[in-house]
Structure formats: structure tokens, C-alpha cells
Specification:
Radius of gyration: 24 Å
Number of domains: 2
Shape: globular
CATH architecture of the largest domain: 3-Layer(aba) Sandwich
Distance between the termini: 79 Å
CATH class of the largest domain: Alpha Beta
Structural class: alpha/beta
Largest sheet: 7 strands, mixed
Helix content: 25-40%
CATH topology of the largest domain: Aldehyde Dehydrogenase, Chain A, domain 1
CATH superfamily of the largest domain: Aldehyde Dehydrogenase, Chain A, domain 1
Number of helices: 14
Strand order of the largest sheet: 15-16-17-14-13-19-20
């Protein structure tokens, strides 16, 4: 057993406990007997202190030249690279992600840092001709102010980096509220910000539950923007609060992603995509492949191959390099997935493999669920429409390409999608007709590159995008500037005709 870490809040450049003195525990989901870390159980008083520090620091941080801010973000990337292995091992212990995936999570943070460091020299505006003589017109980007970043446990480095790095390079001050299941990763990330030379108060870290700290940040009048990743139910509440306060909000929420496999597909390639998409991160990704829409001509063959490969998946400790599928994050998530098995059976679905809490073989002290495939699923069943967030994939038969697209779109969500086909015509029809923010052709639904926009439609988001240059529109306001050097009054639309 490792020595538990003592996590603290980081407010105005100082590491401090919660003012109440209360703490939360973070335990290893592979073996809940191991205490990984303790963290402050913060409340409104801690949020008030962080907001005050951030508002004060913002006044000077916004005036730091953007290229200089970018240089600091570059140093963040260098620190993440140096501490990659340390962070990956901590992540595996803290939230249960297999070690190889944890390394990928940290690498995504590194990629973000180097990408957004360069945006410090590329916060482009526009110049455009004025419709009037002796007049100049241009646009520039201006920072928003103080941003509350509410992040989940399933990507405890990548997602905080997605949010914090563009926010900072744009000139905003931030308050990070990490998930209470992953406080230690957030502490290391904040230490890296500190070591990179970001001034006190510009970055603040406040631990605690969503019902207290998350709500307090969302409601606080000193917060200008809330960026939230989590469930659609909580996101709706966040949006409602921000709407009443005329506060900018960016939401990245749930998914019920589908992979279509057509009769002309490379079945072995589609099989690899299905296994990774369904069971990577134990299905605890918003982009996880939770629906497999199979053309009836290949359904039996593909299902047999999928069953054989699913039986070979190694369920085990996240830190073991031979593990394919690790634990769920906590007892509540384990119970949620187990309950969906009752729902599936009641609705008439058939469990082909799995369907139970995993026991024995050293798994009895963790939150393990067997990799599960459900057959005889119809598009209207709850397991075909609701996000389970576990190692569960449902199999749905389709008679045609057109029906496959219709089934894929038949969900409240619209994050990621995938089509396996050898037909270029079908591929382009899928790109056009699928209702999702992300579409893969002959690739799995999981996976994102930091220089491309990330997000979805319908109940998945509210129209904003994370990652890429698109996120700059979240963390900046467009300001239009006119310079009239004519020396006389010129009235647009009146004097130009």
C-alpha cells in the first residue's frame, strides 16, 4: 500500500484546507481498502475566497501579452511530459483506468499544452473593409473574466487541460473544481501550473461535491463563465442557473454512441473498433460504443466473433499492464450498471455474456463488472436509449443502411458515431445524415485529437465545442472596433447610399 496523499485547496497561490476542516476520501476502485488521498470537503466560504482571489488576479493577468501567457502554458506541457509516468500511475490507482489508457490521458494533456501554447501567438482577429470612406474596421478577442471549470473523474488530466489551458492563454482566471473521485490528479496538475510560473490567483483549485462547491460556483455572481462536463441531468440544471444569471455556459454531457457495421464492412477491423469502443475505460467514456447496429446479413457472424473476443478480455487491477478492463470508479457506479441488467431483462433483452458483478480472482475488494453484451435489443428499449456508463454494449439488428442511420439517430444524445463500410457512397451519406458532433468512418467511436473540435448535439451539449480553435469562442468575447479618421460624422446605412 502507498502512503495516502493529503490534498489541499489552492487559493491565491497558497495551499489551504477547507475552512470547515472537513475532508473527503479518495479510494482505489481496484481495492477499496486502499486510501489513495484525502481532500478538503469545501463549502461556500472556500468558493468565495477563490472567486475573490481570481477576480483580483484577472485584472493584471488579462494584461499579460498573450504570447507570454503561451510561454507559460508551454512550460506546463514540459512539466506534464516530465511527470507523465507519475501521473499515469496515480490516475490508475485513483480512478481505475488501465495504465496504458492513463498514459494516453496524460499525453492528451501534454498535446493540449503544446497546442494552446502556440495559440498565444495566434489569437487572431479580423480586419475588413468599412462601407464608408476614411474608416477602418477590425475585430479582436477579449477574455471573459473568471471561469469555473467543473470536470469529471473519467479523464482527470485531459479534460481539466482541455478547459484550463485555452482559458488561461485567452487571459482568463480560473477556478478548477475536480470530481471528488479524482482529487489527487488535480493537485498534481495545479502544482504544475504553479511551477510553470502562473501568478497567484490566476489558477485556483477547490475540492468538494457538486451539490455544494459545483452549485456555489455556478450561482456565484463573481463567476463569468461555467464550463461543465458531466451528466445531461446535471448539465440542464447548470444551464438553467447560468441562464437566469446571463452567464456564459459551455456544456459537454452524455452520449449513447453507436457503431454501424454494414454487410460490406471489414469485419475484423470493425471487431477491433467495437471491443475498444465498448470496453475501453470500462465503458466509462462519453464517447463509448454502447450500441452496435449490425446489418442482418453479418449479424450472426459478427456476433460470434465478438463473443469469442469478449471472452478473452482480461478483467483485473488497473495498475497491471496485462489488464484489458479495469474497475468501475465507485460502488454507486457499480450498482448503477447492475441495475441496468434488471432493466434489460425486464424489457426482453438477452444477456449473451457477462451481466454480473465480477467476483473472485482477487477482484472481491474492487468495483468490477463483467464485460457484457446484450442481444435481442430494440431501439426503443431503455438500454438502447439511456447512458449506462459501464462495460455494456447492446446489439441491434438492421435490415438496411437507411434503417441503420435511422436507429443511430433514435436517441436523445448526439456525441460520437461510427460506420464501417467499404462503400464511399454510404460513407458520405453517413457524414451528411448522422446527427452527431463526431463521425468516424471505419474507426471506433472513442478517441479525439486536441486540434479538432469536440462536442455533440441534442442532449449532449449546448452548441459550444471543446478543443481545437473552436474553444477560443467559448473563452473569449468578440469585440468589434471602428476607427473613423474622416474628421466628420459618418452614419452607416444612411450616409453610404
Amino acid at each position: 500500500m502507498n502512503t495516502p496523499l493529503t490534498c489541499l485547496n489552492y487559493i491565491d497561490g497558497k495551499w489551504v484546507p477547507a475552512q470547515s476542516g472537513s475532508i473527503l476520501e479518495s479510494r482505489n476502485p481496484t481495492d477499496w481498502r486502499e486510501l489513495v488521498a484525502t481532500a478538503p470537503k469545501s463549502d461556500i466560504a472556500d468558493v468565495d475566497a477563490a472567486v475573490e482571489a481570481a477576480r483580483r488576479a484577472y485584472k493584471t493577468w488579462r494584461l499579460v501579452p498573450a504570447p507570454v501567457r503561451g510561454e507559460m502554458i508551454h512550460r506546463v506541457g514540459e512539466q506534464l511530459l516530465r511527470r507523465k509516468e507519475e501521473l499515469a500511475h496515480l490516475m490508475s490507482r485513483e480512478m481505475g483506468k488501465p495504465l496504458a489508457e492513463a498514459r494516453g490521458d496524460v499525453q492528451e494533456g501534454i498535446d493540449c499544452a503544446f497546442y494552446y501554447a502556440s495559440e498565444g501567438r495566434r489569437l487572431f482577429g479580423q480586419t475588413t473593409p468599412s462601407e464608408l470612406g476614411d474608416k477602418f474596421a477590425m475585430t479582436i478577442r477579449a477574455p471573459i473574466g473568471v471561469c469555473a471549470l467543473i470536470t469529471p473523474w473519467n479523464f482527470p488530466i485531459a479534460i481539466p487541460c482541455w478547459k484550463s489551458l485555452p482559458a488561461l492563454v485567452c487571459g482568463n482566471a480560473i477556478i478548477l473544481k475536480p470530481a471528488k473521485d479524482a482529487p489527487a490528479c488535480a493537485v498534481i496538475l495545479t502544482q504544475i501550473f504553479e511551477a510553470a510560473g502562473i501568478p497567484p490567483g490566476v489558477v485556483n483549485l477547490v475540492h468538494g461535491g457538486g451539490e455544494t462547491v459545483g452549485r456555489a460556483l455556478t450561482e456565484h455572481p463573481g463567476i463569468n463563465l461555467v464550463s461543465f462536463t458531466g451528466s445531461s441531468e446535471t448539465g440542464s440544471e447548470v444551464a438553467s442557473i447560468c441562464g437566469r444569471a446571463h452567464k456564459r455556459v459551455c456544456l459537454e454531457m452524455g452520449g449513447k454512441n453507436a457503431q454501424i457495421v454494414m454487410e460490406d464492412a471489414d469485419l475484423d477491423l470493425a471487431l477491433e473498433g467495437a471491443l475498444w469502443g465498448a470496453f475501453g475505460t470500462t465503458g466509462q467514456r462519453c464517447t463509448a460504443t454502447s450500441r452496435l447496429i449490425l446489418h442482418r446479413d453479418i449479424k450472426a457472424e459478427f456476433t460470434a466473433k465478438l463473443l469469442a473476443q469478449t471472452r478473452q478480455l482480461r478483467l483485473g487491477p488497473s495498475i497491471d499492464p496485462h489488464t484489458d478492463v479495469g474497475p468501475l470508479v465507485n460502488a454507486a457506479q457499480l450498482e448503477r450498471v447492475r441495475n441496468y441488467m434488471d432493466v434489460a431483462k425486464t424489457d426482453g433483452a438477452k444477456v449473451l455474456i457477462g451481466g454480473n458483478v465480477a467476483k473472485g480472482d482477487g477482484l472481491e475488494h474492487g468495483f468490477f463488472f463483467q464485460p457484457t453484451l446484450l442481444d435481442h435489443v430494440t431501439p426503443d428499449m431503455r438500454v438502447a436509449r439511456e447512458e449506462i456508463f459501464g462495460p455494456v454494449a447492446v446489439l441491434i439488428e438492421a435490415a438496411s443502411f437507411e434503417e441503420s442511420i435511422q436507429i443511430l439517430n433514435n436517441t436523445p444524445y448526439g456525441l460520437s458515431s461510427s460506420v464501417y463500410t467499404q462503400s464511399v457512397n454510404r460513407a458520405f451519406q453517413a457524414m451528411r445524415d448522422i446527427e452527431a458532433g463526431i463521425t468516424y468512418i471505419n474507426g471506433p467511436t472513442s478517441g479525439a485529437e486536441v486540434h479538432l473540435p469536440f462536442g455533440g448535439v441534442k442532449a449532449t451539449g449546448n452548441g459550444h465545442r471543446e478543443a481545437g480553435s473552436a474553444v477560443l469562442d467559448v473563452f473569449t468575447d468578440w469585440k468589434t472596433i471602428y476607427v473613423d479618421f474622416s474628421g466628420r460624422l459618418q452614419r452607416a446605412q444612411i450616409d453610404n447610399r
